[in-house]
Amino acid sequence: MARRNYVSIVKTETLKSTGIAPKLRDPGFWGDNAAVIGLIVIGAIFSMLTPYFLTWANISDLLVSASILLVLATAQQFAIVTGGIDLSIAGNLPWAAVVFGLAYNGGLGMGVSIIAAILAGTLVGAVNGLVIAKLKVNDFIATLGMLGVMNGVALIVSDGQSFSVNSHFLQALALGSIGPVRYFYLIALLIAAGAHLVFTHTAFGTHVLATGGNREAARNMGIPVSRMRIAVYIIDGALVGLAAVLLVARTGGSDPSLQTSELLTSIASVVLGGSSLFGGRAAVVGTVAGALVLTTLLNGFTLLQVSEFYQPIAVGIVVIAAAVLSRLQR
What we know:
It is a single chain. By secondary structure, the chain is mainly α. 77% of the residues lie in helices and 2% in strands. It has one domain: ABC transporter involved in vitamin B12 uptake, BtuC (Orthogonal Bundle), CATH 1.10.3470. The strands form 2 sheets. It has a two-stranded antiparallel sheet. It comes from Acidocella aminolytica 101 = DSM 11237.
């Protein structure tokens, strides 16, 4: 009888340990699944508050906005995974857009203009990486300085003027689709899928994660830490250049004085998705959900005609919440 009671107790405790209740009490569970949970809750709230939220036209527009953010968040993820951060995105994005506008209006053609924009973003990323890895400047300080530099350079090169870019190709890129799948969604998902494969199935991704997890240990294992850090900022810059092309396609022009909130939202998307601000952890699928959460939040505010003055407050709160979740994960 005693043995039977003992077995019953063991089975009960085993079920409890493997059930949902312990997971709900685990802070890490909420940190890992914050983006998905948040997306479901926010979507449900807005669908009840406004009948326009779940219309296909609104969802399609929401996904287009999320696509640009997702490309930027993927760029940010490469920096964050190594324990760094890229604040220069807010300067690199308008800079790459200006280069695109200048090249196209200068008669260089669409293909060359796209390459020029991506190379412009890549150049900024390479400089960030060299300053951080070779000159040993803190990531935050280096990219913050580059943010100011590139904002100024964009204004000087363009003489403070915006450029209109009229192109059938860009119109098709912004409005075209394969069935119900818009080209913007497809590009963003391909970028995210590529990043996921890099982190999970390549030696380079393993080395990047090891660099972010413990640089000294990675160095002792023979991993070229400095080269890894330079490489991730180069990838980061190239993706920002691509995002600039998508932004020009959507808006029809390049503006050197563009003030964008993508800096905060790109960081929040990554951390909400389950990646750690302390490095060594990547969650690209979660980053997709994180980008959707923030885009949905702003989209819902717009539909409810909430003043745009309150929108940065909401994003800021999400950034703080993301930092807290990152701490819980650690």
